[in-house]
Amino acid sequence: MADVFQEVDEEIRRDKAMVLWRKYGIYAIIVCVAIVVGTAGRVGWREYKIAQRAEESSRYVIAAQLLQNGKTAAAITSFQSLAEDASTGYGVIAKFQAAAARIDTGDQAGAIIEFDLLAADDGIDPIFRGLAKLQAVMLLINGGATEDLNRRIGELVSPGSNWRYSGLEMQAVLKHRDGDVAGARAAFKALSEDAAAPDGMRNRAAQMLAALGGEG
Question: CA–CA separation, 189 vs 14, rounded Å?
């Protein structure tokens, strides 16, 4: 008799299980499929990104070889094309290379425009934006308008800037260029004595100070 009750109990459990499966089984399948698809998607996306980086790296090398071989115009075109298409760090590097390559063609004004565009691009890391500002200042330091350079350098030496010391160096150079020898001496002296400044920059500042008749 106990066996009969046990069989009936098992039948009832099976019936309940079938009802539950018909009611909720589809959701279990969806969850399982989602897990499998999600895992495959992550793996596929990772492989896609690896392939993308490899493809962009190859394009960058080709553009760099063109530049090295003296085919500057073609190199600029290749760097610009990569910069437009890239979704990795190669895009930013390509923009810098395209701007720098313009200098080789004598198009300093074009290079400055490109660096200014990089400096104004909120989509890239602030350290690269600051580098673009510095590159533009270095191109303008010999003949650029003092007021414009003071504005540009002011952005470099602002609190929190990654390029503050480079900006202070350019500030001292600008004072010397404009005939403010006393101001240049003071600026180079302060930079040479700033323990937080990079060693190479402090040494250059000390050498400039000595050349200007100050204390090295």
Answer: 90
